[in-house]
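The following record pairs a protein chain with its ligand, aspartic acid.
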Amino acid sequence: MALIVQKFGGSSVANLERVQHVAKIITDTYRAGNDVVVVLSAQGKTTDHLIAMAKEYNPRASKRELDQLLTIGEQQSVALCAMVIEGMGYPVISLNAWQVGFKTNRVYGDARIKRIDTERLQAELDSHKIVIFTGFQGINRYDDVTTLGRGGSDTSAVALAAVLHADKCQIFTDVDGVYTADPNKVDGARKIDEITYDEMLEMATLGAKVLHNRSVEMAKRYNVNLEVLSSFTGNPGTIVKEVVKPMENSHVSGVAKDKNIARLALVGLKNEPGVAFKVFSLLARNNVNVDVILQSIGRGDEKDISFTVARSDTELCKQLLDERRESLGFEDISINDHIAKVSIVGAGMIGNPGVAAAMFEALYAAGININMISTSEIKVSVLVDEADADRAVQVVHDKFFRDFGRS
Ligand code: ASP
Ligand code: MG
């Protein structure tokens, strides 16, 4: 007998029919002799609707009251799902964060999990009940409800799998798993059978939004056996784990694109120690996340630094830097928010030279200019014009996956 955590996303529980379908998956797993803990998202677009509603009532509503509202969504779906399973004649109980003791820090809207009391959960499992738990929510030290950030139910599920030492954590969604590129946009994109935690983290950060980032970090930290699969098709999904078998020909697992970025360039900075420190500590103090950084070789007493940030931070950055133009001593800021980042990810790059060059070759052959490059052990990212981004993903994907691949 195994303990299995199953998480179902909003589209998987969108209406009665979908909930009945999910209830069948859950009870089949239970009937096969497993303990089952289920984590649900809010039905369909419920969370979006609640957010829209809050905006209407007060565009500046406090995060505490927002959380108070948003947690309704998950509460609704667990109760309804439990009712359906009751109706099928199985022992079942729905529980929310408060009842389980799912403790977080006090940050409303983006809370981090601190501790989960497993006592109640364990007692319900011991009495052979199927447990249906509200994803996305916790309680803080003031006994207020908190939420874990959009998409946070994945993280709730992995956290439960970790504390309960579950044998498996299955994340059911509306796609068959993780793909080598966005299957809706890229010709020849295919499902990946196995991917490492690190690759998955990179893919998630790069905008392949199948899993909540923090859920992958947590799965890696606690070595949770993770599977992403479709609640619609019943096909085998993608397994996410520490090490995967070395794949034949492709050293690359996937190609991802991020359009939500802007590049800022500081021109004519003083060529002296401490300049980079001053610039980036200023941004860090203001919670701006900086991604790719490029510093030019100084010319005499001047140098340039360019870097990318999330597009929504562009104005803030410009303002912060402009205010300190004198003390930082630069001549000009230039901003380009019509760029995109295209990246290849693959644990197989380690120790295999030539992967980056193959990517650059594909872009060159397509006449696509590269603005900036950054690399890590398992990733190569380039900045290209936004207008070229989709074509760039396609030609790079063709380069690595046309004739061979992982599946
Ligand atoms: N319902 C929440 C959201 O839409 C949490 C989740 O679905 O994971 O963000
Ligand atoms: Mg999700």
